[in-house]
Every structure is written in structure tokens, then in C-alpha cells.
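Hi, here's the filled form for the chain we discussed.

Project: internal
Contact: R.S.
Residues: 184
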Amino acid sequence: MTEHAIRRSQAQIPNALTMFRIVLIPFFVVLVLRSQGGWTITGAILFGVAGITDQIDGWLARRWQVESRFGQLADPLADRLMIDSAVILLWHAGRLPLIALVFILGRDLLLLGGYKFVMERGYDFKVNQIGKAGTWLLYAGLGFILITEKGTDWPLYIFWSGLALALTAGLLYVGRALKVVLAR
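And the returned structure, exactly as it came back:
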């Protein structure tokens, strides 16, 4: 097999992991809906697998220098869909307060709504370390909420820390996007 063929096949792995994460969402939703009050070890494992693939796909794409336009769009979308699903389901199960749902969905709707506007004006979203840390903490906090008893506070502290970092990253994205858009 030639070096070119290896690179071509490697280039598909990060995007395949992203698509795998999207495919996991309906299975995760069914597991949480069938759970007792949002407590599900199997759902937490599936959610953890999604979080791990999020870390691996971006790392591989950067390491192999095979970042793609598709990956830049699909990877954060897969995260938003998985995390939003978990937040909605855990709120419905009484495991998260309404304010968590409002902040997560509000942030994601703002990002999705503004995305097309700024992309058409030349802004290129680059993931920042604060956003990565926020996403990882959100995955961890939500995963721990899925496997702890209702009323256990420590997973919520991880979740709120992740949300604070995610909101901070969102503000940084908005600030950079405004500078680019207004400069044109």
C-alpha cells in the first residue's frame, strides 16, 4: 500500500468517528428514556464513548493534518447534539435544573444561528482550548450524573464548571467573529 493510500484512508478516520458519535445519539436517547429517573450505566458508557471519540477525532485530524471542512462543521455539531440530548433528557428526568437547559440550548442556538452569518463574511471557527476543556467537563459531568443517585451534588459541580468554560469560549468566539465581520 502506498503512502498516498494510507493518508487517504487515514483522512477518513476522524470524520468516521464524528459520524459514529452522531449515530450513537438515538441509542443514547432510548437508553435514558428507558432508565429509572435518568440513572443508566449503559447510557453513561455510551455517552462516555461519545466523549472519548470527540477527543480522538480532533486529535487524529490535527496530528495527521487531515482536517476537513466537513469535520470542522460536523464535529462541533455532533457534540452539541449529544450534549443537548443529555441535558434535555436529564432535565426531563429531574436531574438538572431548568436553568441548565436554558443556558445550554441558548448557547447552542446562538452559535448555530450566528454561524452562517459569520461564515459568509469570512470568519473561520477555530476551536480554542477553553472550549475543548468546557466540552470535556460537560461530557464528564453529564456522564457522572447518569451514574449517580439523584441528589448527588459533585457531578453538578463538574457540569457547571464545564458550562462556565463553554460559555466563556462562546463569548470569545463571538468577540473574534465580531472583529472579523466588522473589519470587512
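Let me know if anything looks off before we file it.
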